[in-house]
Amino acid sequence: MNTVQERPRQEHDGRTPLPEPALYDWCDQLITKAYDSKTGIVSVAANFYTPDIQIGDASVRYNADGTYSAGLTRTGTYTLTFPSLCMREFGAIDGNPAVDVTQMMPVGGPVDICKQLELPLRQLGMGPGSFLNTTCVVDPDPGDLGGCACTFDASETGGGGGTYLALSDGQTILNLPGPGKDFPQKVTYCNTGTELQLTGADGQYLFGTLGLRTLDLVPLP
Prior knowledge:
Distance between the termini: 17 Å
Structural class: mainly beta
Largest sheet: 8 strands, antiparallel, barrel
Radius of gyration: 22 Å
Strand order of the largest sheet: 1-4-5-9-10-11-12-13
Order of helices and strands: EEEEEHEEHEEEEEE
């Protein structure tokens, strides 16, 4: 089987409902407060939420020695929305500086409340290296004056590796990620010589990646 593959196509089970929009229209994950020298606007930061994140790049290799490896990069641009009540009920107001949460120091001059939110969210997202380019503006929704809409780019890697067994039916591989990594995963395959299609068997996700059912792959040149 000793092939290197790329160019993924992601499919979703028709029985799986579409994901909800990446919105936080409640305050459970965020507390804002009036500026002070210790905390600035964000006391508890919001969680970044990325439903249905798409596979942007993939490589899969099954080696003759019974090992395999998979590299998956998931990318997308998403929006977090924070209504006016969420932003202002704890005393945060326009006209204060943004605060660098790594130094706990104000940065620049007075800005509106959304730009005060932008800097700490951007810094907190860069921490795991997965959520980048966060930008917050006044929410254009006329039904909620004073709220904020923040967009961010997501980039996450995964895939893993381990050993595999080609089962006797001639169309199924059993991936064995290794102790403590994941459960064994059955993958059906169809190799046409110019394309390899991998599908999670029995409704399983491929390589433990939520939402990923099928990859259509071609050999590297």
